[in-house]
Specification:
Blueprint lengths: L2 H12 L1 H19 L1 E2 L4 E2 L4 H26 L7 H18 L4 H24 L5 H20 L9 H8 L4 H28 L7 H23 L6 H19 L1 H11 L1 H6 L4 H27 L11
Antiparallel strand pairs: 1-2
Helix pairs in contact: 1-2, 3-10, 3-13, 4-5, 4-6, 4-13, 5-6, 5-13, 7-13, 8-9, 10-11, 11-13
Keywords: Cell inner membrane, Cell membrane, Membrane, Sugar transport, Transmembrane, Transmembrane helix, Transport
Protein name: Xylose transport system permease protein XylH
Main location: membrane
Length: about 325
């Protein structure tokens, strides 16, 4: 391998996000070429409409992944999230369509049910010592059976307009711009706080010029993101919900004692236990968070489809 090859390999190993972006760019280029329409003179893949639809669909997976990170970091696994998503989405459809519950009551009940079911998985794993693989594999079958029972194996529709907005709505253009400015302001404040903390403890940090360039680059990406979505119909509501969830989970993992406990439990369970951390509670709480995110994803799925279907969350 040449010196240039070694340098490139070292650079990509140190900045993995760059390698990831390169791979994504290559994938996008492939689909752009494959979907090019000579008559229209442009690709059907690289359009604001397609970008918006992709983000809306990815948001549901992202909601589940945000909590699954904690589960995996804690040294566990949850195989039941797809079935739990389908169950909670089905419950939401039944409450909304069959019983005519108000939207706030439906959402509150489904979120609470998600926490309870997820916490029950965690209780079986942490306090009874049953491997999470077995618990969640069994839970997957149980949840799938329950949703078939309560829905009778049929699709339940149509859901109320307010409920539908959660999965199909868009933010007005001006509100999307406001959200972008708020996000950029928060990033600036976080950067200033981080630099102040590092300076106080004499830790290494980027030069002011590099930090400014990084912030400007991030700001340009945010601006481009908003402009592309606003050129179609605006920021999809599920995407906004996902961004909020990612922000909250980032704060939990980096800025809270609970987040540090999760990493400690996954790193060395016994050492963490002897340090006085209630490892059983931490594991149960992680599964409860997973259940909460399954509830949010289930609500979003039902809202996006405008119906509750017993096959939701199963088989992709």
């Amino acid at each position: 391998m040449t010196l240039t090859g070694k340098s490139l390999r070292k650079f990509l190993a140190e900045y993995k996000i760059v390698a990831l972006l390169i791979v994504v760019a290559l994938i996008w280029a492939f689909f752009a070429i494959m979907t090019y329409d000579p008559e229209m003179g442009r690709s059907q893949f690289l359009t604001a409409r397609n970008f918006s639809n992709l983000l809306r669909q990815m948001a549901i997976t992202g909601m589940l992944a945000s909590a699954m990170v904690f589960v995996i970091v804690a040294g566990e696994i949850d195989l039941s999230v797809g079935a739990l998503l389908g169950l909670l989405g089905g419950v939401a459809a039944v409450l909304d369509v069959v019983y005519g519950w108000p939207l706030w009551a439906t959402i509150s009940t489904v979120l609470l049910l998600g926490v309870v079911l997820g916490g029950f998985n965690g209780w079986l794993t942490a306090y009874l010592g049953i491997p999470s693989f077995i618990v969640t594999l069994g839970g997957q079958l149980v949840f799938r059976g329950i949703v078939l029972g309560i829905m009778g194996g049929v699709t339940i529709a149509p859901i109320s307009p307010g409920f539908k907005y959660i999965g199909q709505g868009y933010l007005p253009g001006w509100l999307g711009n406001v959200c972008a400015m708020v996000l950029f302001t928060v990033l600036i404040l976080i950067t200033l706080r981080t630099r102040s903390s590092k300076r106080k403890h004499n830790l290494q940090m980027l030069s002011p010029a590099m930090e400014t360039a990084r912030l400007l680059g991030t700001g340009i990406l945010i601006l481009g993101f908003i402009l592309i979505l606003n050129s179609y119909q605006g920021v999809p509501v599920p995407v906004l919900v996902l961004l909020v969830i990612l922000g909250v989970f980032t704060v939990i993992s980096r800025q809270t004692v609970f987040g540090r406990h999760i990493y400690a439990v996954g790193s060395n369970l016994e050492a963490t236990r002897f340090s006085g951390v209630n490892v059983n509670f931490v594991k149960m709480a992680v599964f409860a968070l997973m259940g909460l995110m399954a509830a949010v994803a289930g609500l979003t799925t039902t809202a996006r489809l405008a119906a509750g279907t017993p096959s939701a969350g199963f088989g992709g």
